[in-house]
Specification:
By secondary structure, the protein is of the alpha/beta class. The protein contains 14 helices and eleven strands.
């Protein structure tokens, strides 16, 4: 049995795909298939269910992955420490949501960049970024959702607080007593500006504050919270936004809260890496720096 077969096996488990595993390992897809077949022949049992959607471990495959994953991570870490010069020289690949990277992450890591750290940044939704992390295309991800599954380690960074906001002109047209008596009916009449069709941020706020689903459909959907802020500030409608992102607008009075719940809804941000990769000194330094700096983000 070859050690490389086990490395390929673990990579397929992490990526859920022979094709993605091949891309991460720098192999052809037929080579990955042949290695897995060789391993299955050696062990005498199938290790994956092959489906049009990818590959999922069988019961025996899950058991094997559970037993050897930590050992494979230690082997990879030892090789990286002593021999992976190319890894140490290439840029660190960081992923995160565009708004958070722009408002907080870039300023946070500027000292490290000035000191010589090379970084390549990818922007996108958390689920896509975490998939790229698992497949090896990213080294570290600032995520708005908690990572799930084996092969990814994560650290809570900070909590972002959400507020239901409007421009002063929109807010002035909403009588306070109406909000006190018939909150949901009043709010349902106002145009809603959303980040996505599924209303993830708005839905969290409505469930937490009102114990009810949000009004739908939204009047505007724009996949950038900075554009949502611009729309709400210009009186196009109302929205739920993270307060750190619109602190200047709140301080100047360009935006005002429509509600002030006793316990504002929050969402935890996470810093995710692949298991075993924090042995790389530059990545560990970046990770430590972000964890420390994030305490002052919100």
């Amino acid at each position: 049995m070859q050690l490389g077969w086990l490395q390929t096996f673990i990579t397929v488990c992490h990526t859920g795909s022979f094709t993605k595993a091949a891309r991460q390992l720098g192999l052809t897809q037929p080579a990955v298939t042949q290695q897995i077949r060789s391993l299955e022949s050696e062990l005498g049992k199938p290790l994956f269910h092959r489906t049009p959607q990818g590959a999922t471990p069988t019961a025996e495959g899950k058991a094997l992955a559970y037993e050897i994953e930590a050992s494979m991570a230690e082997i990879n870490a030892a090789v990286s420490r002593h021999f992976a010069d190319t890894t140490e020289n290439r840029p660190i690949r960081l992923g995160g949501p565009a708004e958070l990277v722009t408002a907080r992450v870039m300023a946070s890591i500027s000292q490290l960049i000035a000191a010589g750290l090379d970084v390549r940044i990818s922007l996108g939704e958390a689920s896509n970024l975490l998939e790229d992390l698992r497949s090896g295309h990213l080294d570290i991800v600032v995520s708005t959702i908690q990572p799930q599954g084996r092969g990814v380690d994560f650290t809570p960074l900070t909590d972002e607080e959400f507020a239901l906001l409007a421009s002063p002109r929109i807010a002035a047209g909403v009588p306070a007593d109406a909000l006190d008596c018939e909150k949901l009916k009043v709010l349902a009449k106002l145009p809603m500006i959303a980040y996505a069709e599924t209303l993830p941020i708005i839905r969290r706020y409505w469930r937490t504050v009102f114990d009810a689903p949000p009004p739908s459909p939204p009047a505007v959907v724009v996949p950038d919270l900075r554009a949502v802020i611009a729309a709400v500030t210009s009186s196009a409608g109302i929205s739920v936004l993270p307060t750190y992102l619109c602190a200047a607008e709140l301080a100047s009075g360009a935006l005002v809260p429509l509600m002030e719940p006793e316990i504002p809804p929050i969402n935890t941000l996470y810093l995710a890496t692949r298991s075993g990769t924090l042995c790389e000194p530059r990545l560990a330094r970046l990770h430590e720096h972000l964890v420390r700096d994030a305490r002052g983000w919100t």
